[in-house]
Amino acid sequence: MENKAIDSLSDWALVAPKAFFEAQQLFATFFDSSTVGLGIFDSQLRFQAVNNALAAVNGLPARAHVGKTAREVLGNFNGLELALQHVLVTGEPAFGLQLSGHMPNRAEVVHWIGNYFPIKDNLGNVRQIGAVVTEVSKQKTLEQSLDKLTNRLLEIRDDEQLRIARELHDSLGQYHVGLKLSLDTLHRKKLASDQRAQILAECTQLLDRCISETRTISYLLHPPLLNEAGFASAARWYVDGFAQRSRIKVNLYLPPDSARLPQRVEMALFRVLQESLTNVHRHANTSAVDIHLERNIEAVAMEVKDYGRGIPPEELQRLQEPSSIGSVGLAGMRERVHELAGRLDIRSDHCGTVVSVTIPVPCTERRCIRSERKI
Question: For residue 311, what are the CA distances in angstroms to 265, 335, 353?
């Protein structure tokens, strides 16, 4: 029995180092290849080990962490030190700790979520602290951008409603006042038949103007031709009306292929056309505008070019900055095009201004175009 026991003990002595080595290798492989930040602190809150993922979060090579305290590497993050001290004293883990701030080795603000847990010895004393860290800086940036976009959309909606209210007050409101005054005159005064006929004729004219203005406002808010006949028909209708009202010559060049585009794409193109021509009328001081629409299997592109005074260089530079929201109209155009993964560009000099927009055509629409051509 003794020999057997010794033999088995000898066998264990030969096998144990190999098993221990394999366990170390497995741990090292997991530690180094993990996409989540992993680290180990000693009882003095000094880094003992850091994987590449955590090193990337901290902006410092992994080897440069070893022997340095959390404060030396990360800066003055009081929330982190308090959490680590809590783990050391109580032996309880700290989960879901959210921290944000500037690090000495990274230029941008860093956001991360950390889980910190005690590593105890055989007697239950905390000797080390393990850290599992996930950076959420991109998610935070997206959340902040979404909040800004939501607020901007609310501002645009409020400004648009204010603009519509002014339109109604300045146009329909005035006609209604004139109509009411004329009807009051008919009601209160005894008039000769020819005077009554004249006032009634004026009332009819005012009603006709009300109907025309109501139709125009309704069409501008959502032109029925856009849904019924597509962008090409709606663009012709709008351009004809704009040319008559503004006395600006508009040359509209459309492709012979009038196949429909997705509804959202047509609406975005129409709104860009509207806003561009509105800006031309207000600011360009031009006598002519050229509008070109081109379409292929991959995308649709539109260009609105005037020959006016152009945009001042400093204003153009501000408008071209990605972070610039510009005017309400420009912000609306950008956001519509951006939602469709498109691109909006503005170029300007002393010879005029060019607004160009390119919007990808969805894959389903491309298949439809191909099938139509085959037929």
Answer: 27, 21, 7
| Backbone phi, psi, residue 341, to 5° | 60, 30
Residue type, 240: D
Crossing angle (nearest 10°) for helices 193-221 and 174-188: 160
- Chunked mean pLDDT (size 10), the chain, 375 residues: 46 55 66 86 92 89 90 82 91 90 84 92 91 88 78 74 78 84 83 86 87 74 78 88 87 84 89 88 88 90 93 79 56 82 90 93 55 36
